[in-house]
Design brief:
The complex is a heterodimer of chains A (258) and B (248). Chain A is an all-alpha fold and 258 residues long. Chain A has one domain. Helices cover 86% and strands 0% of the residues of chain A. Chain A has nine helices and no strands. Chain B has 248 residues and is of the alpha/beta class. Chain B has a six-stranded mixed beta sheet with strand order 6-7-8-3-9-10, sandwiched between helices. A four-stranded antiparallel beta sheet of chain B has the order 2-1-4-5, with helices on one face. In chain B, a hairpin with a 2-residue loop joins strand 9 and strand 10. The radius of gyration of chain B is 18 Å and the shape is globular. Classes of the chains: A mainly alpha (258), B alpha/beta (248). The complex binds adenosine-5'-triphosphate and magnesium ion. The site of adenosine-5'-triphosphate (ATP) has 11 residues of chain B, from strand 2 and helix 1.
Chain lengths: 258, 248
């Protein structure tokens, strides 16, 4: 019994310490954005990799999710004769919640893991040490470009996800559920408010930041050998996904509770 | 030039360095020998500040390494890592010219490339490897690219971690001569880790042997092969019989 409590205490202390280190690292990452030199070429490569190359997976997931959402709401709404609300609910569901969350989870899977594996490999093969001895700060050379690319790509990907999600709903609604395309779009546009869109994009900024910084953090703190790389990659994806969902809750509460 | 005073470093319960004292004079070539896992690489990383010693002081040029500004401090160093540590996302010539393409020593791309190709030639690699990626090279070639990167900016202090392991005997000879040349012609201060007695013979002014977390023996090259220290004698002769334990 005592043993169990000790273990529990040790685990929670460990978790709190890790959270502290991650917070500190996020602060340092933010600082690194403003300290020259700025590595423009690395920044370009990161934007391509994190933003542009994530488009297919983000687009497909949101298209299918929007389509499924329309079907569900139509079936659900039919129970109390409210089939007409499909465009409104799809719009609000995608823009406020599903668009950002899907983007967050998809880039945690695609981007966080690849950053963590890459940086961890650099760490275990002494490339990070080599960078330092060549007078290059890993925070500015490795972290800052990826972090900034995450902050910029996040909202862009969320915008794409929102639009394609609504489009997925539209396709199902017009092809299978007998809605008129023009009215559907009109209803969507009338219903969405400015704060809906702003909150959606703001979530994108935060999630993009979390996903990239978590990859860098676990990569730079990787243990030794191939096992170190594997452990770092796994931990980074788990941490990114959990933090993104937690941040999503806090942001939603902050934006819409008042 | 480089002075270590009572340097200690442990990883958990593994006491790697336990009181290292060592001095390397300006323009001197110090060769460090010692068994596998005795902390030779850790020692070099402590001097560079890549690993922080638990206790002890390290001075370079008379100033404490923990208080000198990092940028200026590192600018005078070149380092060949044991595993090469090439950046695998960059082609070979950009690896060699890494420092010349950014930061204080920035040169034009054209000029940086020319210097890189010249340094590659000095380690026995032709211009045809310049545009390859490190992963396309053999282990020994990667090592030599690492060497070219270490000497690319003609630094004042250069560390070589096992420069000749993985090279054929002829190439090893070329590299040994090159390191000697760098010390004599450029007046650089160097520390070289090696297990290769031919290297000791060609490169060293002074030899230090690390054993049991301490510098067991230090002396001029002329004395290392007929030292009266039993540990040194066993090490340079490669005999399994002697005071150094071998597990079998
Ligand atoms: N970052 C680290 N974390 C934990 N232990 C380490 C670390 N770096 C080195 N060690 C340990 O320190 C000891 C000395 O390692 P080091 O690499 O300095 O050996 P070495 O003398 O260079 O050996 P070799 O000749 O085989 O290269 C080893 O036991 C190694 O496991
Ligand atoms: Mg070593």
């Amino acid at each position: 019994m005592i043993k169990a409590i000790t273990t529990l205490g040790r685990l929670s202390l460990g978790a709190i310490a890790a959270l502290g280190r991650i917070t500190l690292f996020m602060g340092l990452s933010c600082l690194s954005l403003f300290r020259p030199p700025f590595y423009v070429r690395e920044m370009g490569a990161a934007l391509l990799n994190i933003g542009f190359l994530s488009l297919p997976v983000v687009g497909l997931t949101s298209l299918f999710t929007g389509a499924a959402l329309a079907l569900q709401i139509y079936a659900g709404g039919a129970r109390f004769n409210a089939e007409d609300v499909v465009p409104q609910i799809v719009a609000i569901g995608m823009v406020r919640e599903l668009g950002p969350v899907l983007v967050g989870l998809m880039i945690a899977a695609r981007v966080t893991s690849s950053i963590a594996a890459e940086v961890a490999t650099m760490k275990v093969t002494e490339q990070i040490d080599a960078l330092v001895t060549l007078s290059t700060d890993p925070m500015r050379y490795l972290v800052a470009p990826r972090f900034l690319a995450g902050l910029l790509s996040g909202p862009a990907l969320v915008a794409v996800a929102d639009i394609l999600g609504i489009l997925g709903g539209l396709m199902v609604a017009t092809q299978a559920l007998g809605f008129n395309a023009a009215t559907y779009l009109q209803n969507t546009a009338d219903f969405l408010t400015f704060p809906d869109v702003v909150s959606s994009l703001a979530k994108g900024v935060v999630f993009g930041g979390i996903a990239t910084v978590m990859g860098c953090y676990y990569g730079l703190n990787a243990g030794r050998g191939a096992q170190g790389v594997g452990a770092a990659t796994k931990a980074s994806v788990v941490a990114a996904a959990v933090l993104i969902l937690a941040a999503n809750f806090l942001l939603t509460a902050g934006f819409f509770s008042s | 030039m480089i002075r270590l005073v009572d340097v200690h470093k442990s990883f958990g319960s593994n006491h790697v360095l336990s009181g290292v004292n060592l001095e390397v004079a300006q323009g001197q070539s110090m060769v460090i020998i010692g068994g596998s896992g005795t902390g030779k690489s850790v020692l070099l990383k402590c001097i560079l500040g890549l690993i922080t010693p638990d206790t002890g002081e390290i001075y370079v040029d008379g100033s404490d390494v923990t208080t000198t500004p990092r940028e200026a401090f590192l600018a005078q160093f070149g380092m060949l890592f044991q595993g090469g540590a090439l950046f695998d996302s960059l082609p070979v010539w950009q690896n060699v010219a890494f420092r010349l393409l950014r930061g204080q020593l920035k040169k034009s791309k054209q000029e940086a490339r020319e210097i890189a190709i010249e340094k590659l030639r000095r380690v026995g690699l032709g211009p045809n490897v310049a545009d390859l990626l490190p992963a396309e090279l053999s282990g020994g070639m990667q090592k030599r690219v690492g060497l070219a990167r270490a000497i690319a900016t003609n630094p004042k202090i250069i560390f070589f971690d096992e420069p000749t392991t993985g090279l054929d005997p002829i190439m090893a000879g070329v590299i040994n001569d090159l390191i000697r040349e760098i010390v004599v012609d450029m007046g650089a201060t160097t520390m070289t880790i090696t297990h290769d007695m031919t290297s000791v013979n060609t490169i060293a002014d002074q030899v230090a042997m690390l054993h049991g977390g301490k510098v067991r023996w230090v002396g001029p090259r002329s004395q290392v092969f007929d030292s009266d220290d039993a540990y040194v004698r066993q090490f340079v002769s490669g005999s399994p019989e002697g005071p150094i334990e071998t597990l079998r």
